[in-house]
Specification:
Distance between the termini: 43 Å
Structural class: alpha+beta
Order of helices and strands: HEHHEEH
Shape: globular
Radius of gyration: 12 Å
Number of helices: 4
Largest sheet: 3 strands, antiparallel
Helix content: 40-55%
C-alpha cells in the first residue's frame, strides 16, 4: 500500500497520470502496476502510461493525456 500512496502523490501533480518510469523511480515494480490495474485502482492509458481510477476530472486532463502520446506527424 505504501507504494500506491507514493504513486498517488506523484500522479496528483500530473492530472492523475503517471508513467511506468516514474512509478519505478518511486519503488513500484511492474507487477504492482499490473495488480493495481486489475484491482481497478489504475487505468492503462497507453504504453507505460497510467491514470488514477479515482480522480476528480479537471478541464486540463485531456491535455495531459495528449502530451503522453502526441500524434505522429509525417
Amino acid at each position: 500500500m505504501a507504494h500506491f500512496d507514493d504513486i498517488y502523490d506523484i500522479a496528483a501533480y500530473g492530472y492523475g497520470i503517471i508513467t511506468s518510469a516514474r512509478a519505478r523511480e518511486a519503488g513500484a515494480a511492474p507487477s504492482e502496476l499490473n495488480r493495481w490495474c486489475a484491482d481497478g485502482r489504475l487505468l492503462r492509458r497507453g504504453h507505460g502510461a497510467y491514470k488514477l481510477a479515482r480522480w476528480v476530472p479537471t478541464p486540463y486532463d485531456a491535455y495531459a493525456e495528449v502530451n503522453l502520446n502526441p500524434p505522429q506527424i509525417r
